[in-house]
Amino acid sequence: MTHAGAGEVLVVGLGPGPDHWRTPEVSEALTRATDLVGYKTYLDRCAPRPGQTRHASDNREECDRARLALTLAREGRTVAVVSGGDPGVFAMAAAVFEVIDSDAAARQILVTVMPGVSAMQAAAARLGAPLGHDFCVISLSDHLKPWPLIERRLKAAADGDFVIALYNPASKTRPAQIFQAFDLMRAHKALETPVAFARAVGRPDEQLIISTLAEADPATADMATLVIIGSSQTRFVQRPGAAPWIYTPRSAPDTE
Amino acid sequence: MTHAGAGEVLVVGLGPGPDHWRTPEVSEALTRATDLVGYKTYLDRCAPRPGQTRHASDNREECDRARLALTLAREGRTVAVVSGGDPGVFAMAAAVFEVIDSDAAARQILVTVMPGVSAMQAAAARLGAPLGHDFCVISLSDHLKPWPLIERRLKAAADGDFVIALYNPASKTRPAQIFQAFDLMRAHKALETPVAFARAVGRPDEQLIISTLAEADPATADMATLVIIGSSQTRFVQRPGAAPWIYTPRSAPDTE
């Protein structure tokens, strides 16, 4: 696809927090990249390497970052586009392909996406096995999509009795939407449904709050929080000396 | 929670295929475990270690495996319960907590779940960024849940215009359900919706088949296949010398 000596783009995810959740494939990519492009918070998690150039940017500039990476690759550089988590889940991979889609010349560039552990998976591991069966993954941010579509998806997720993982549940500019989402959930799901707020999982300020749909306080959620809302089958398991486990059994009763 | 010298259970996932998708946390757990418990196919992917005992079993014996692991831990062993992919996504973590839920004594045992890269993430990375926005994850197996619940979830996933990742789409004993699922999808989604069959991603026999809902042949899917069906926004990007990329933009139009 590309000739020898051509540049390339490596779209990588660091995992949710500690280095031990970063795949060896990604670590190797970060070693051989000549350039790192990404949100400053993520680049700060990459060990500095002599001769490697860092292009840090603010959040919310995903397409600018993707264009820069593709431009550098066209100049022959090996460019790692760095996300947290998995680059393919609410992260930079979609932005890279949006830019490629709008720029025929960019389709010549060798692009490799490398999967990673996403925040919902780290949260689930800490909580037990809440994603052990069918689930939906929804970003609550209406920065790029209309709120009615988000409500439609929340409603469909409740209709399907899915476990629901919510990304981007709230921010300083969007404090109200998580309350609207909980209102909708309470109208459609049992109030005893297990709910968890998993904040900064794997980082020193990790915090897990376990509750029910009736009692959960949506104000608990911020941009660093992953919210999980159970299905009708999701259960607590009490244990001594620690918060209860939450899991979703692999089986569902024949009650249709 | 446990006294010094007590055993423990480490619920780990190897990732979808090659070692470079296995997290360092999991590799370290496999090194210090005294016992490995798992489906033989997965244990065969773990390097043998002197003094380590392997308890290989057939597939479909998840609860027996979980019970064995908890029993060994109670005897003071450090037991790794080994899944492919992420143990929290259609894998052993839920089975472990089902057994703990039914056995109060098991709740004393130290259990740590370690997240991993799941098959849908590896498939998405190879294809582009199909899971770049809201998506649903559904197992098509009716081994433990009624088929009407699966149909209800497929219908809800279509109603919510989610991207859909299907695990366990077909097996020798369940050849027809993927056809039923595609019939349902064709009745509810646009026929030009991108579809991908990603088989054995990361393994030597990896195969990617890219199609549309109209043209996809459900017979392509087997137990090693992850099926991805796009949302109304999911797009192809043609490129020279290779199959098109598939991605789902981060934005959705305001058409509600």
Task: Describe the protein.
Two copies of one chain form a homodimer. The first copy, chain A, has 256 residues and is of the alpha/beta class. Chain A has helices at 24-32, 40-43, 62-74, 92-101, 119-127, 147-159, 177-188; strands at 8-13, 35-39, 53-57, 78-83, 110-113, 128-129, 135-139, 163-167, 194-199, 207-212, 225-229, 235-239, 242-247. In chain A, a hairpin with a 2-residue loop joins strand 12 and strand 13. The longest helix of chain A is centred in the first third of the chain and has 13 residues, at 62-74. Chain A is elongated and about 60 Å long. In chain A, 54% of the residues are buried. Chains A and B meet through helix 1, helix 4, helix 5, strand 6 and strand 7 of A and helix 1, helix 4, helix 5, strand 6 and strand 7 of B. Strand 7 (135-139) of chain A pairs antiparallel with strand 7 of chain B, so a sheet runs across the interface.
Secondary structure blueprint with pairings:
Two copies of one chain form a homodimer.
Chain A: E1 8-13, H1 24-32, E2 35-39, H2 40-43, E3 53-57, H3 62-74, E4 78-83, H4 92-101, E5 110-113, H5 119-127, E6 128-129, E7 135-139, H6 147-159, E8 163-167, H7 177-188, E9 194-199, E10 207-212, E11 225-229, E12 235-239, E13 242-247
Parallel strand pairs in A: 1-4, 1-5, 2-3, 2-4, 6-13, 7-8
Antiparallel strand pairs in A: 8-11, 9-10, 9-11, 12-13
Helix pairs in contact in A: 3-4, 6-7
